[in-house]
Amino acid sequence: MKTTFSFLTALLIAATSFGQDEKAKKILDDISTKTKTYETMIFEFTVIVAVQNEEPITQTGKVYIKDEKYFLSLTEQEIYCDGTTITTFLKEDNECYTRAVADVEEGEIVSPSQLLTVWEDGYKYKYIQETTYADRPAHEIHLYPKDPANSKFHTIILKIDVERNEVVFFMVKGKDGTNTKYKISKFEKNTSIADSKFIFDRATHPGVVCQEE
Q1: Residue ranges per structural domain of the chain
Q2: 83-96 pLDDT tens trace
């Protein structure tokens, strides 16, 4: 299988929370509680990967989430999860790869819904300041790995819209100098989504070649 941009793996590093900063804890706990009440979520985002001495890679994406199911559409690939099977479709190559959710290895993320509650395990956090993002007041909170020696990242920067109490930006800063930014541009919740949205339909992709991972 060729190497692809792994959106879900990158998101994993943002799983955090170890109550140290009470102001940060209150903000993050409130977001977690609210997010877990949503029946469905749809959000649009831009991801920018900046590697030292290379041109940044930018992709736009949209995610549909319902229970344990999700559909993630990026510029170059799509990922479908019906709750049992994960299918990754590479648009340019017209190839797809499937694997069982049960086979996801420890250390991998299961659902992109964790983008909106990224602080729930594995990191300490600190409230930095009230700032602005997209001309709106925002909280800035930094996350740090509890076990830095075994982490590829040293800091995650969160920005949270003060009024909406929602994550609108986060930046993962890698030890190797690679920085990954996620900018959430639109967020909808409790919108009706058909279950068919989460199933890869080979019939609509003539000539697609599919393999099991």
Answers
A1: 7-206
A2: 899 999 999 999 99
CA distance 71 to 7: 12
DSSP characters for 145-204? Answer: ESSGGG-SEEEEEEEEETTTTEEEEEEEEETTS-EEEEEEEEEEES----GGGGS--GGG
Backbone angles phi, psi at 25, to 5 degrees: -60, -45
SS3 120: coil
For residues 83-110, average pLDDT: 81
The answer to whether the Cα torsion of 30, 186, 169, 196 is positive or negative is positive
Separation of alpha carbons 7 and 109, rounded Å:
10
Q: Which CATH superfamily is domain 7-206 in?
A: Lipoprotein localisation LolA/LolB/LppX (2.50.20.10)
Mean pLDDT across the stretch 72-83? 92
Q: Residues 31, 166: contact at Cβ < 8 Å?
A: yes
Nearest to 213 by CA among 113, 102, 114, 110: 102
Alpha helices in 45-123 (DSSP H): none
Tell me what the pLDDT averaged over the chain comes to: 84
